[in-house]
């Protein structure tokens, strides 16, 4: 993957991430007739996301809140192949999958005064328009 980020002095930030994924799946097939088969398939996917957030310090404390928004788009390539089972050959086909996910979230956290550690909790709501 590739990652790029920008952060302003006032705590606003933008993160951009592009990833290439390899997806591998193993499966077993059993028919009511008793025939069985197994196999595996590989395919590739790509995703890109952009996130905006703003870390807002709580005055005179080491605590902060951080509203966040993110948009991620992705595509998983389709795959098809033949597989031999005890009942003969079968054709396995997985269509490609597109996804567009939006996320709104908020984090709340603490940073040690010496900047030696931190802790936070985050909650988000996600919506997938396509996948």
Quick overview of this protein structure:
This protein is mainly beta and 131 residues long. It has strands spanning 2-7, 12-30, 36-54, 56-57, 63-76, 79-85, 88-94, 97-111, 118-128. It is built from no helices and 9 strands.
Model description:
- With 131 residues, the chain is mainly β.
- It has no helices and nine strands.
- The protein has strands spanning 2-7, 12-30, 36-54, 56-57, 63-76, 79-85, 88-94, 97-111, 118-128.
- The strands form two sheets. Strands 1, 2, 3, 4, 5, 8 and 9 form a seven-stranded antiparallel beta sheet that branches.
- It starts with a strand and ends with a strand.
- The mean pLDDT is 91.
Write the layout of secondary structure elements.
Elements: E1 2-7, E2 12-30, E3 36-54, E4 56-57, E5 63-76, E6 79-85, E7 88-94, E8 97-111, E9 118-128
Antiparallel strand pairs: 1-2, 2-3, 3-5, 4-5, 5-8, 6-7, 8-9
- Count of β-strands: 9
**In angstroms, what is the radius of gyration?**
22 Å
What level of helicity do the residues show?
Answer: under 10%
What would the principal axes of the Cα set say about the shape? elongated
What's the number of helices? Answer: 0
- Bin the strand percentage: over 45%
Largest sheet: 7 strands, antiparallel
Q: Could you give the distance between the termini?
A: 21 Å
Uncertain runs with pLDDT below 50, 5 residues or more?
A: none
- Order of SSEs: EEEEEEEEE
In terms of quaternary structure, the protein is single chain
The helix-and-strand class reads: mainly beta
Give the integer mean of the pLDDT values.
Answer: 91
